[in-house]
Design a protein that fits this description.
By secondary structure, the protein is an alpha+beta fold. It has 2 domains: 148 residues, Pnp Oxidase, Chain A; 49 residues, no CATH class. It is 24% helix and 32% strand. The strands form 2 sheets. Strands 1, 2, 3, 4, 5, 6, 7, 8 and 11 form a 9-stranded antiparallel sheet that branches. A two-stranded antiparallel sheet has the order 9-10. Helix 4 crosses helix 5. The protein is elongated, with a radius of gyration of 20 Å. The two termini are 25 Å apart. 26% of the residues are buried. The protein binds flavin mononucleotide.
């Protein structure tokens, strides 16, 4: 089997699924240690007027089989509002240092609450407070107003007054529950493209597609992937 991380081209006979390759490239970007956030991806949602809106988010889980990715956010943010109305989403990874791009298109659904709870519990303590502190995407009068809001909310959570949350001794840190308005989205791709940079702009490219049928709140029935090589 060809190693996706040493391959400079996609194999002549395309792999039966793109998921292993995409995951191998993501893992490789971590191993290379060049980028601060190798799991950063652009997430594009569509607003109520049909206007696409892109921003970066972090891929916190990449599940090869049955094939979905997870990112975390505020459920009252613009992106989450867009997804409530139209759950179609596009994600793009680009690792400049290795000349690789992965594009995914599919549907987003909220992660099961227990999964968001479990992930939230692993977050850095100060970041847990940050999730309570910011009403992501809402207007803000000033930076000072935000800092005051964060301290007010931290105090409500039982955190003693401190200039810097990190200076609070571990023993004095109350357990912070997950805010109900914060959690994961699972993105189920129905289309994935793998791209490898080539000399003279003769890049290597293939797209895989599969059927995707919503089964319940957070799961889909998925079909087999079919791959097609594309001109660059
Ligand atoms: C590298 C990077 C990673 C980010 N990761 C996340 C993330 O995982 N979740 C998130 O909600 N916002 C993340 N952000 C902030 C978003 O890009 C965006 O500013 C925020 O989510 C508000 O977007 P919205 O108003 O379109 O919902 C990240 C920003 C950068 C630059």
């Amino acid at each position: 089997m060809i190693d996706p991380c040493s391959a400079t081209r996609l194999p002549t006979k395309l792999p039966s699924t793109p998921m292993h390759w995409a995951k191998a490239w993501l893992d490789d970007a971590f191993k290379k240690g060049v980028l601060r956030n190798p799991h950063a991806m652009t997430a594009v949602t569509v607003d109520e007027n049909g206007q696409p809106a892109g921003r970066m988010v972090l891929c916190k889980e990449f599940v090869v089989d049955p094939g979905y990715l997870v990112f975390y956010t505020n459920y009252k943010s613009d992106k989450a509002r867009h997804l409530e109305n139209n759950n179609k989403i596009s994600l793009v990874f680009y690792w400049d240092s290795s000349g690789r791009q992965v594009r995914l298109e599919g549907e987003a659904v909220r992660s099961p609450a227990e999964e968001s709870d479990a992930y939230f519990a692993t977050r850095d303590w100060a970041s847990q407070i940050g999730a309570w502190g910011s009403d992501q995407s809402s207007p803000l009068e000033s930076r000072a107003a935000l800092i005051a809001q964060v301290s007010r909310r931290a105090m409500k959570l039982g955190v003693g007054a401190a200039k810097n949350l990190k200076s609070i001794a571990v023993a004095d840190r109350p357990v912070i529950p997950r805010p109900p308005h914060w959690g994961g989205f699972r993105v189920w791709p129905r289309r994935i493209e793998l791209w490898i940079e080539g000399a003279d702009r003769i890049h290597d490219r293939a797209r895989w597609e599969r059927s995707l049928e919503r089964r319940d709140d957070d799961a889909f029935a998925v079909g087999e992937w079919t791959g097609t090589r594309l001109q660059p």
